[in-house]
User: Fold this.
Amino acid sequence: MTLLSWAVPKGLPPRPGIKRLAVKVEDHPLEYLDSEGRIPKGEYGAGPMWVFSRGTYEVTKDSFYFRLNSRELNAEFRLINTREKEWLLEKLDEPQLDWFTRSVDPMLAETAESPPSRMTMPTK
Assistant:
Protein backbone atom coordinates (compact mmCIF):
# COMPACT_ATOMS: atom_id res chain seq x y z
CA MET A 1 0.00 0.00 0.00
CA THR A 2 1.30 3.48 -0.89
CA LEU A 3 0.33 7.13 -0.60
CA LEU A 4 -0.68 8.96 -3.78
CA SER A 5 1.29 12.20 -3.66
CA TRP A 6 1.28 15.63 -5.24
CA ALA A 7 3.69 18.52 -4.72
CA VAL A 8 1.81 21.81 -4.30
CA PRO A 9 4.61 24.43 -4.43
CA LYS A 10 2.48 27.46 -3.46
CA GLY A 11 0.30 25.62 -0.96
CA LEU A 12 -3.39 24.81 -0.95
CA PRO A 13 -5.69 27.44 -2.48
CA PRO A 14 -7.15 29.54 0.36
CA ARG A 15 -10.57 30.19 -1.22
CA PRO A 16 -12.68 29.35 -4.28
CA GLY A 17 -11.58 30.93 -7.55
CA ILE A 18 -7.87 30.38 -6.93
CA LYS A 19 -6.20 27.44 -8.66
CA ARG A 20 -2.77 26.17 -7.66
CA LEU A 21 -0.35 23.94 -9.54
CA ALA A 22 -0.21 20.38 -8.20
CA VAL A 23 2.47 18.10 -9.67
CA LYS A 24 1.94 14.34 -9.36
CA VAL A 25 5.07 12.84 -7.82
CA GLU A 26 6.02 9.24 -7.13
CA ASP A 27 3.84 7.30 -4.72
CA HIS A 28 5.28 7.36 -1.20
CA PRO A 29 5.52 4.45 1.26
CA LEU A 30 3.21 4.59 4.29
CA GLU A 31 6.22 5.31 6.53
CA TYR A 32 6.23 8.84 5.06
CA LEU A 33 3.17 9.65 7.18
CA ASP A 34 5.59 10.30 10.06
CA SER A 35 8.51 11.76 8.07
CA GLU A 36 9.81 15.18 8.98
CA GLY A 37 13.18 16.79 8.42
CA ARG A 38 15.15 18.42 5.63
CA ILE A 39 15.58 17.16 2.08
CA PRO A 40 19.20 17.95 1.08
CA LYS A 41 19.95 20.73 -1.40
CA GLY A 42 20.21 19.42 -4.95
CA GLU A 43 17.61 16.69 -4.40
CA TYR A 44 14.02 16.89 -5.65
CA GLY A 45 11.87 18.78 -3.13
CA ALA A 46 14.91 20.21 -1.30
CA GLY A 47 14.16 22.07 1.90
CA PRO A 48 12.19 21.53 5.10
CA MET A 49 9.52 18.85 5.21
CA TRP A 50 6.93 18.48 7.98
CA VAL A 51 3.52 17.00 8.68
CA PHE A 52 1.01 19.84 8.32
CA SER A 53 -2.07 17.85 9.20
CA ARG A 54 -3.37 14.35 9.79
CA GLY A 55 -6.89 13.39 8.92
CA THR A 56 -9.10 11.62 6.46
CA TYR A 57 -10.36 12.20 2.97
CA GLU A 58 -13.53 11.24 1.19
CA VAL A 59 -14.27 11.18 -2.53
CA THR A 60 -17.32 13.41 -3.03
CA LYS A 61 -18.34 13.12 -6.72
CA ASP A 62 -15.74 11.17 -8.67
CA SER A 63 -12.07 10.49 -8.17
CA PHE A 64 -11.15 14.13 -8.85
CA TYR A 65 -13.47 15.71 -6.22
CA PHE A 66 -12.51 15.12 -2.60
CA ARG A 67 -12.90 16.50 0.92
CA LEU A 68 -10.03 16.73 3.40
CA ASN A 69 -11.02 16.42 7.06
CA SER A 70 -8.66 17.22 9.92
CA ARG A 71 -8.30 19.50 12.91
CA GLU A 72 -6.52 22.08 10.74
CA LEU A 73 -8.51 21.76 7.54
CA ASN A 74 -12.02 20.83 6.45
CA ALA A 75 -12.55 21.67 2.80
CA GLU A 76 -13.59 20.27 -0.57
CA PHE A 77 -11.21 20.40 -3.54
CA ARG A 78 -10.97 19.14 -7.08
CA LEU A 79 -8.04 18.21 -9.29
CA ILE A 80 -8.05 19.11 -12.98
CA ASN A 81 -5.49 17.33 -15.16
CA THR A 82 -3.79 19.75 -17.59
CA ARG A 83 -0.79 17.68 -18.73
CA GLU A 84 0.73 14.31 -17.98
CA LYS A 85 1.81 15.00 -14.37
CA GLU A 86 0.52 18.57 -14.00
CA TRP A 87 -2.79 19.30 -12.36
CA LEU A 88 -4.67 22.34 -11.12
CA LEU A 89 -5.94 22.15 -7.54
CA GLU A 90 -9.05 24.20 -6.80
CA LYS A 91 -10.87 24.79 -3.53
CA LEU A 92 -14.63 24.47 -3.96
CA ASP A 93 -16.16 25.68 -0.69
CA GLU A 94 -15.88 28.89 1.30
CA PRO A 95 -12.93 29.45 3.66
CA GLN A 96 -13.31 28.41 7.28
CA LEU A 97 -12.25 31.94 8.25
CA ASP A 98 -12.11 35.01 6.09
CA TRP A 99 -8.42 35.79 6.59
CA PHE A 100 -8.44 38.59 4.05
CA THR A 101 -11.14 40.88 5.42
CA ARG A 102 -11.31 40.09 9.13
CA SER A 103 -9.11 42.27 11.30
CA VAL A 104 -7.10 40.60 14.02
CA ASP A 105 -5.90 42.50 17.07
CA PRO A 106 -2.16 42.11 17.68
CA MET A 107 -0.92 40.31 20.76
CA LEU A 108 1.01 42.88 22.78
CA ALA A 109 4.04 42.09 24.92
CA GLU A 110 4.76 43.51 28.34
CA THR A 111 8.14 44.03 29.98
CA ALA A 112 8.97 42.36 33.29
CA GLU A 113 11.94 42.22 35.63
CA SER A 114 11.79 38.41 35.83
CA PRO A 115 9.78 35.53 34.40
CA PRO A 116 6.48 34.76 36.14
CA SER A 117 6.62 32.18 38.91
CA ARG A 118 3.38 30.57 37.70
CA MET A 119 1.00 30.90 34.82
CA THR A 120 -1.61 33.56 35.52
CA MET A 121 -4.69 34.41 33.53
CA PRO A 122 -4.96 38.02 32.37
CA THR A 123 -7.62 40.14 34.00
CA LYS A 124 -9.99 42.31 32.01
The two ends are 54 Å apart (CA to CA). Strands lie at 2-7, 19-29, 37-39, 47-49, 55-59, 65-70, 74-81, 86-91. The first strand starts at residue 2 and ends at 7. Residues 20 and 30 are 25 Å apart (CA to CA).
